[in-house]
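In the present case, backbone shapes were mapped to integers, as reproduced here:
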Amino acid sequence: MQGVYPSKKKDGTPYYRSSIHYLGVHVSLGSYDTEKEAHRAYKEASKLYYNPDIKLTNFRKYIRVLPQDKVVTILNHRDHKIYIKTPIYLRNGYFSYYLENRRELKFDNDDLFYYSSHRILSRQGHLYVNDYGMQYSILQRFGIKNFAVRDRDYRFANGDYNDFRYSNVIVINKYHGVTLIEGNGAPYHLVKIHINGDYTIGKFRNDSIAAVAYNKAADYARDHGLNKQFIQNYVVEYSPKEYAEIYSQIQLPKKYRDYIKDITG
């Protein structure tokens, strides 16, 4: 049948590959158990390419065999003459990335090259990609750490949790142990370190200085023999010399220093 290529698995079991050519591109449509099903995939792909009435909003009426990510790829290829392997559909000034549950994620075009070669996966509500054998949250591209909590450490300006355009993702607390407190007066950054409970290290007007204060509190605990893995803040705002000067000027609370000495002997 047209568009169908029989093949065999290593154990000799037959299966059928389906593909189609469009604008000089060989588009693989997947592997199927029967020749009939593989041919149906080919016919559905032909419909997508040559029937302009089929769109992202109504393709479910016409498509039964092809998976959603392949449909998105084909429709983008048809409409924009650009073939992208991941389920990306180009928009005016941004692009949409579709997850299997029809969830549409929005990204700036600056991220197009990255997500053209990295597939977004979802697990328990967390979105991540596999890169060099490691899993990375897509939030890390904004400088948001894995421990961050939405609406506390970062928020979406327009309220759309699926809009990952850079102007929409607002980072509030980018450092571990540092929380922005707005309150009724002037905002400040509260530094706390968790040992056997949370211990307040101080209040700072600058989040970078607050991050250094957290690092110093963690260093103090480790230097006195506390066997605990603290997350170290990487403060990019300062040169090594500036960092050292700020570090030396920060005074840790006596209550905290006494507590560390007491539990470490």
About this structure: The mean pLDDT is 94. The CA atoms of residues 175 and 234 lie 8 Å apart.
